Amino acid sequence: MRIPAHSVCTAVRDDIVAGVYERGSRLTEEVLARRYGVSRVPVREALRTLEAEGFVVTRRHAGACVAEPTEQEAADVLEMRTLLEPLGAARAAQRRTEAHLKVLRGLVRLGQERARKGNSEDLRSLGGWFHETLAQACGSPSLTSMLTQLRHKIAWMYAVEPPVSPVESWAEHGAIVDAVARGDGERARALTALHAERAADAHRLRFSVAGERVRTSQHAVNMSGLRH
């Protein structure tokens, strides 16, 4: 059975974000095909997609390599998120379904409960699911895709400090959902903008100007690294 290229792409992207492949390291089709148990065809397609997304670059005499974003590029990615997430929330207020609201409210209830108990690992996962669901609720596949890609990139480029007050952070999530439920796009936009700005302050680059990785954690980095 042929493995879809998008599945290979997801696997390679996740490993890049997790630091399995260091910034600047080569990504040979043969090695990747062997690692993921596929032929070189889906690997080749996956690398093209990842290059378009900015995770991979093609270098002369070296082929495909993990990209090495600069500090300015990393700052731009974080700024784009702070601009696009509020837009997504405003759209969600007009286009969300009852199913989206049910999931969002359930996540807020769980998040608030875990925040009171101080379970930080659960909060990371719940926060990611919250923002992913909010992005899906915007009713725009292209915007949802952009927000998801930005979250992947930010998880790759940044380590995130836990919020000083998780209870307050989840209260902000709850207020955003309330605005979305009422169809108040402007309030949803404003609340999400404030939330995104506060979250941005907790992000710390994983690499220096010289390209050295910052030793922030021994744990693998994944989407949960952006939970707040």
Brief digest:
It contains nine helices and four strands; from the N terminus they run αααββααααβααβ. The chain is mainly alpha-helical.
Q: Beta-strand level of the residues, as a percent range?
A: 5-15%
Give the helix tally: 9
Rg is 18 Å
Helical content band: 55-70%
Low-confidence stretches: 210-228
The outline comes out as: elongated
Count every beta strand, where a strand is a DSSP E run of 2 or more residues.
4
| Straight-line N-to-C gap | 40 Å
Question: Helices and strands: which structural class?
Answer: mainly alpha
Description:
The protein has helices at 5-17, 29-36, 40-53, 71-95, 98-117, 120-136, 141-157, 166-182, 185-200, and strands at 56-59, 63-66, 158-160, 203-205. It has 228 residues and is mainly α. The chain has a two-stranded antiparallel ribbon. Strands 3-4 form a two-stranded antiparallel ribbon. A hairpin with a 3-residue loop joins strand 1 (56-59) and strand 2. The chain is elongated and about 55 Å long. The model is unreliable at 210-228 (pLDDT under 50).
Notable features of this structure?
two-stranded antiparallel ribbon; 228 residues; two-stranded antiparallel sheet; 9 helices; single chain; 4 strands; elongated; mainly alpha
Give me the secondary-structure topology.
Elements: H1 5-17, H2 29-36, H3 40-53, E1 56-59, E2 63-66, H4 71-95, H5 98-117, H6 120-136, H7 141-157, E3 158-160, H8 166-182, H9 185-200, E4 203-205
Antiparallel strand pairs: 1-2, 3-4
Helix pairs in contact: 1-3, 1-7, 2-3, 4-7, 4-8, 4-9, 5-6, 5-8, 8-9
